Amino acid sequence: MSDTIKFPFYIKLSATLISLATIFVTLFFGQEIICPILLALLFAIMLRPIVSFLIRKLHFPHFIAVIFAIILFVLLFLGVFYFLSIQISDMTNDWGKIKHNFYYHLEHFQQMIRENFNLSKREQNEIITNATSDSMSSGKKIVGTTLNSAADILLNITLIPIYTFLFLLYQNHFVTFLCKLVKPESHKKLREVLSQIKIAVQSYITGLLFEMIAVSLLTTIGLYLIGCEYFILLGIITGILNLVPYIGILFAGALSIVISLSGSTDLTIALGVIGVNLVVQLIDNNILVPMFVNSKVQINALVSIVGIIIGNVLGGITGMFLAIPIIAILKVIFDRIDTLEPWGYLLGDDIPKTFEWHKIRFPHYNYRYTSTPVDISTDVTPTMPAEVTITPTEISLTPTEDSLEKDQNSADINVDK
Question: Are residues 249 and 238 in contact, defined by beta-carbon separation less than 8 angstroms?
């Protein structure tokens, strides 16, 4: 007898909507607790190969191997932070020049506004003064919010390595817990799901790290060639912000333009920065992403963008970074559950990206060509009845015994009449 209870569609739909609403509300109000845990889980999955290498090759005890991996992880972040702090300190040493360049660009900007919008400098200064006085009234609130945000960041920086250490230390414990949740006959599928999640997350995060390094180097070289000051700082910041798909590069480009203009009075430097960012993005999207970010789980662009926006609403910048790995994990789970497999297909991307024409490959996005053998054509061709062919052998011109008997009977009846 089946243990599954079948409910009407409206009950299933109501339960699904209530569950989704509960999940989103929980994530929104519990983001300060959930986001560090999810980040630590991703870092633990990324560091797991290092722990395995230390245990198998160097024969470290499990506890010592986990500690050693966490120390390497923390030292890597401290090294990046120290290098950035040196670059920022060099930038602050030129504060006098930055201030002079800022007022120079402000003067030209006010001149442009006066010529195009007929606003004198006095009127523009009054507008700026009023805006400044209004903003000063809420200055205490801004300072308080900033201090709270700084305290939250420091707390998360402390908690994430601890969470990562505990995830690595109790990894077998958590796997056993998951095995206890499912039936023994489903353990094979559970191991397959966990393996695919590990491969997808490790491939994605490792690819992002290589992509970050490559984008930082390319941007640094490009900004150096156009004569932009603080090119090393801007290159590293661009690489780090590029970790947030689609949106991070926009903030990186705007920040690069502002900082480059503060270091020079030449307005053409902004055009050079835009050109460098465009060239780097072309290289990144067409070479670096296929080469490095070779995730085992393909997610289509629409789901990625919507997921990033939802992640921003629920968890800010951290949620934007977590969006793609979480969607990849959900797709792995959906693909292994029969009732959820259509949703896994919806999250995925199986459309061929290129086609060849005269030995030249072009982008190819056509809904008629997918890797799934499903007929999605809506054109209905009327079917004509099959043509009937009659051969001479099918027509008998010689009367049979039955036909003769029927004719004789009909003749007898006519005689009786």
Answer: yes
Which helix (H) or strand (E) segment holds residue 40: the answer is: helix 31-56
The CB density around residue 124, as the number of other CB atoms within 10 Å, is: 16
Choice between 260 and 195, residue whose per-residue pLDDT is larger? 195
CB within 8 A of 239, min separation 6: which ones? 212, 213, 214, 215, 216, 217, 219
Tokens of 295: 């995730």
Q: Where are the alpha helices (DSSP H) in 94-138?
A: 95-117, 121-137
Q: How do residues 45-68 score in pLDDT, each as one tens digit?
A: 889 999 999 999 888 999 999 999
Q: For tokens 């929104």, name the residue.
A: 28
Q: pLDDT higher for 198 or 294?
A: 198
The pLDDT, as a whole number, for residue 264 is 66
Q: Which pTM value belongs to this model?
A: 0.69
> 348 near 298, Cβ under 8 Å?
yes
pLDDT given for residue 141 in this prediction = 53
Tokens of residue 273, six digits: 């920065």
For 143, other C-beta atoms within 10 Å of its C-beta total 10
Residue located via tokens 């420091």 = 154
Distance of alpha carbon 140 from alpha carbon 175, whole angstroms: 48
Cα→Cα distances 407→314, 394, 411, 415, 417, Å:
91, 22, 6, 13, 16
What pLDDT does 413 receive?
45
Helix (H) or strand (E) holding 389: none
| Residue pointed to by tokens 């003067």 | 107
Nearest to 218 by CA among 90, 295, 226, 204: 226
Burial class of residue 402 in the structure, from the number of CB atoms within 10 Å of its CB (0-12 exposed, 13-18 middle, 19+ buried): exposed
Contact 208, 186 (CB under 8 A): no
Q: Give the sign of the dihedral formed by CA 134, CA 140, CA 143, CA 145.
A: negative
Look at the block and give the residue holding tokens 């609130």: 141
- DSSP code at position 400: P
Q: Mapping DSSP to helix (H, G, I), strand (E, B) and coil, where does residue 354 land?
A: strand
For residue 348, the SS3 value is strand
Contacts of 140 (CB under 8 A, 6+ apart): none
Is-contact 207 295, C-beta < 8 A? Answer: yes
